[in-house]
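1st attempt posting a full record on here, be nice pls
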Amino acid sequence: MTLYEAVDLLWDGDPPDSAVNVVHRHIGGLRRLLQPDLPPRAPGGHVVRTAGGYRLATGPAALDLARFRGLRERAHRAQAAGAGGDGACLYAEALRLWHGPVAAGGMPRLRDHPVFVAVENEYLATAKEAADTVLRHRSPLTEDVLTALRCAAAGRHRLDEGLQSRIVTALAATGRQAEALEVFEAVRADLAEEPGVNPSSPTAFAPTLLGEYLASIHATASLQVKVVTGALGGGAISQPEVERRGED
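the predicted structure (as tokens):
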């Protein structure tokens, strides 16, 4: 990163006169965080000064992001080789490296930097891939994947259709059909507040999410499900009537 990129990132085109000195102080603090025993003004071995700025000098094994990407790639290869169970384990291991949104402790606008948004999108895509693999192979890692999906949904992706439908599926797969319906209703209500979004439209989010909910109940609990009141148009979705086979 160049010094001027750091200044622009921190002050968004309106830096104070002391901006360069402030960046140098921040870099010094970062060096001491990475190397607590580093003497004052020592160059350090991880954050290296270059002609125009600074460079992070470390191997892939020391970076969670590099390890995350490596595990995801291995999961892709395992799936391609027909080893879905191994792929599920690799996905779960990758997702455990995630410690929350990028730049969560900094200034709010830093989270919208394209680099940070791209990393969050990688996590979102990996969580979806993991959910598909784990649910397809009925892996005992469903709870791990559900945690990752919920983490992804806590930020900018809370209204992502594919994400929320997988949460519903994972909840139903672990026997929490009532909670799955609660998620559906909550997201549908949030969508109703979004300008230009009609959650009752046949092409909107709600039918897909409800379909996941009903399909999951049928597949995981061998239940016959019918929705009372018809009801994707207007109003809330009624609680499904659930009739166990053989009880009629």
